[in-house]
Amino acid sequence: MGEWKRHRILMVSDFFYPNFGGVENHIYYLSQCLLKLGHKVVVMTHAYNNRSGVRYMTGGLKVYYVPWKPFLMQNTFPTFYGTLPIVRTILIREKISLVHGHQAFSTLCHEALMHARTMGYKVVFTDHSLYGFADAGSIHMNKVLQFTLAEVSQAICVSHTSKENTVLRSGLPPEKVFVIPNAVDTAMFKPAPERLSSHEIVIVVISRLVYRKGADLLVEVIPEVCRLYPNVRFIVGGDGPKRVRLEEMREKHSLQDRVEMLGAVQHSQVRSVLITGHIFLNSSLTEAFCIAILEAASCGLLTVSTRVGGVPEVLPDDMIVLAKPDPSDMVQAIKKAISILPKIDPQEMHNRVSALFQKLLSLGALTTCTVVKICFFGSLLVCR
Fold first, then answer.
1. Which residues contact 71 (CB under 8 A, 6 or more apart)?
2. What does the pLDDT read at residue 268?
3. Which one, out of 164, 265, 298, 339, has a CA that is 20 to 30 A from the CA of 116?
4. CATH of domain 8-183+358-383
């Protein structure tokens, strides 16, 4: 480890495997990298159905599935001091030296950070999403954030937009908040061996089918694009409460042969879906970073995305077509993407994505969390 001190780190969040999402992947891959660096890593989350108690994952990653049922959107019911006994037990039993909480919407994260700081532990917080200031839910969460992050050692955000949002919401000093973009494993996300035919254009959507991800926009955009371009076909991967609306749209416009619904797609299968398409479509209404468009670009797909949150920071302008979160503007963006598609070389795009992270990856092989590893080094330097 050289000058670096070996830490015993507790990752805390309501969002972890077997639930799938960006936060879950981030915690898992960050933990694996830290384990390879010689640190001890333990994860604390709530129980998922019959997955309760202590489990072990790849690399000896120890996971405490605390036997509490989720209350709302995979979050446990907020109790403040009800979690103190179990948090204290884990901290002492595992001889933890650093607590790392993830996601502002996780009640378990907030409570663990509060208890750990009260007990004198160093704490790090990573915010993965953007939240507003006006609605009742955001006002409540922002007050909780100010309370629980009052004594946080360091905070990490995935984009400059996310940093501004977190600083305004939490009242943290800007010098305590660091911007570390997410990374992609370019070795896992490679283009198809042979260039796809341009006779049929395939547009891929892989997302949770929820309101925040713009599923309602897809309901209006897809039929219009299919009407304008008879040679365009859509592949939609993902599941959620808005899937019913997409299926109703497909039935209403008789697009069963042009809109393929895959349902939930495991992360290990994402590349195999991406390389079947030419364009990747992201319709999110709010997004702190959106690693999905980075994975798509690494696979050689031209991206069309809504201009929201930190999305404009992710890719160069010539690798992405941005649009307002409005159906007509998104259709125009797709038309522009189709017109420039012949100029896109998937392998060249993959190489450019790899080059974007080359300096940060100079410490080791291409891995999903090498950039995150460097980010955590900064936190450990301050917290050791």
1. 77, 78, 107
2. 82
3. 164
4. 3.40.50.2000
